[in-house]
Amino acid sequence: MEVNIEARRILAVSISKLYASRSQRGGLRLHRSLLLSLVMKSARDIYHSSRESDAPSEAQSPPEEPMDTSSSPELPEPQPEPLSERNSSETAVEESDSEEEDYESDTAEDKENLSPARQSRKRRGKASAAPDFLPNKRARLEPGEERYASPVASCRTPLSDLDSGCFVVKIIFLLLNCGPSNVHWNIQVIKKQISEPATSACIARMLRRLVSFIHPP
Amino acid sequence: MNSANHKIRTSNLSRPGGDMQWCFSQVKGAIDDDVAEADIISTVEFNHTGELLATGDKGGRVVIFQQEIDNKNVPQFRSEYNVYSTFQSHEPEFDYLKSLEIEEKINKIRWLPQKNAAQFLLSTNDKTIKLWKISERDKRPEGYNLKEEDGRYRDPNTITALRVPVLIPMDLMVEASPRRVFANAHTYHINSISVNSDNETYLSADDLRVNLWNLEITDRSFNIVDIKPANMEELTEVITAAEFHPHQCNTFVYSSSKGTIRLCDMRVSALCDKHSKLFEEPENPSNRSFFSEIISSISDVKFSHNGRYMMTRDYLSVKIWDLNMESRPVETYQVHEYLRSKLCSLYENDCIFDKFECCWNGNDSVVMTGSYNNFFRMFDRGHRRDATLEASRENSKPLQVLKPRKVCTGGKRKKDEISVDSLDFNKKILHTAWHPQDNIIAVATTNNLYIFQDKVN
């Protein structure tokens, strides 16, 4: 259970780091974003595998657990079992990846109008109801950063920053396994939004929505 | 050299300091504790003779120190370095197309071997590489016909006689001028540059690509490695460092965030996406944690001077690889293994992303790298000894011998030991350099440069 809490905490810390790295001088650092996403993936896999192993004893939709605010620097080493479960959940992630790539081959008109049946191919676990693995408090911001700071100037973002931004957003979506029913988390819609106005302000807006989704006001 | 057996070194010392003792020589930089961000040192590099020592900082400046010539042959004072030249290499830029600020921080400096009276170095920020010429001027012409001494032009009608201008001595002036600007070749952030042994080409590497340049040609570069996936969402690793082999002009290596090193031969094909050798050590499953991927990311790769080995630095260790053996390193040295249980805190305070560099001594017998609390570590490969030393103002009396430091990992703390929880993680040594021919080292703390030399008996 401590592993579970630790995984949630690390996920929350990672997401706020990703959010804060948007406003770093010099732009999004690809290496750092990649490492953050790998940590989030590990934390998510461990969280889900420990949830699955606890599944029979849990209620249908567990209420949000209050976060353990006492910070413990010691990380309890995950048991060897999550390793094999991570492998299986990784293949599940890759399957959902390839499902999403199937979406990308659709024509542009279909992207916004995917039927709920197709959308339900996305992996839904207990996390689909509400992101209960995330703590019940506002994301911690770096000192001096405003929550709704807009980027320095809004111009078109060409391919590389687009790719970095897409990549970051995609990872967050995969990690949260959010169903698109109440919020438009459909990756195709988001990609379209990114590529057309092509502003980093757009990515900022989406991350703000993501944060507010995680921590409803 | 060493056998191919895998040796794992611990930090226990049989005799502190080993055979070599180090003395303080100089410290450069501001004394006050309030560090201006622009003064943070971001790279340190000796030139090929060791006579010049260059530093780059976050403010885009390069400062070059020169070894004091008069003292070169006096053993105790041979490591006296004085400021030789200071210039602004890179300025902050704004990329209007990408709506991105480009930092002026100097990521790397590499010296070119000296060919004539002038010195040349390459300096790079995230996007642009510049070739700088540093030349001395100690004479100036005097006696122009058409100009007065103060530069005003004379009326030609007033000239009645001609004279030949002569060169007269003047105070030494060191001038730095940008000779080439290599721009617009990198979409991602440049992490390495490396001059080829052919003295005509060099490589530059960013997160996903390695480019080959000719030193004379600025408007064209050749892409020799490209690991960008067709779909960026499939990205799993990035390039973290790259270097040319010191003698074989066709060979280079690049390291990745996954802890692998690829050796490529440019004779095989124009695009070196397919490696000739892949160096990778299987992960120890008992060390698996949330942060395994981060700590296995290689932050620096350096060939040995003799070209037979290469060294890699990841977050917790230094590994020496034999170029003929891809399956595992021949030596592994733990830099600060006591941090393995603190990875979660180090992740939260961002220290886990710190990129430490490493360096070889001139004869490849000792390697050095930095750590936290202004500690730096040396590993003597031949004598199987290691030492932990500290760069601090408290130990900066002239020729003061550095006392070896020890970190207490648990249980009772002995006198003079420091416990892990007392370490100052804001004081980190990321950049170190070793004189190519002598036992003189340059160690950069946040905004100070310390120069140490070995003790002369």
Can you characterise this structure?
- The complex is a heterodimer of chains A (217) and B (457).
- Chain A has 217 residues and is mainly alpha-helical.
- Chain A has eight helices and no strands.
- Chain A has helices spanning 2-21, 30-54, 81-104, 108-111, 116-119, 159-176, 187-195, 200-214.
- In chain A, α2 (30-54) crosses α3 (81-104), α2 packs parallel to α6 (159-176) and α6 (159-176) runs antiparallel to α7 (187-195).
- By secondary structure, chain B is mostly beta strands.
- Chain B contains two helices and 33 strands.
- Chain B has helices at residues 292-296, 343-348, and strands spanning 7-9, 22-28, 41-46, 52-57, 61-67, 81-88, 93-95, 100-102, 108-111, 119-124, 129-142, 166-182, 192-195, 201-205, 209-214, 221-226, 239-244, 251-256, 261-265, 277-279, 300-303, 309-313, 317-322, 331-334, 358-360, 366-370, 375-380, 385-390, 406-408, 417-419, 431-434, 440-444, 449-454.
- In chain B, the strands form nine sheets. A five-stranded mixed β-sheet of chain B has the order 1-24-23-22-21, with no helix packed on it. In chain B, strands 2-33-32-31 form a four-stranded antiparallel β-sheet, with no helix packed on it. A four-stranded antiparallel β-sheet of chain B has the order 3-4-5-6, with no helix packed on it.
- Chain B is globular, with a radius of gyration of 24 Å.
- Classes of the chains: A mainly alpha (217), B mainly beta (457).
- At the A-B interface, α1, α2, α3 and α6 of A face β8, α1 and α2 of B.
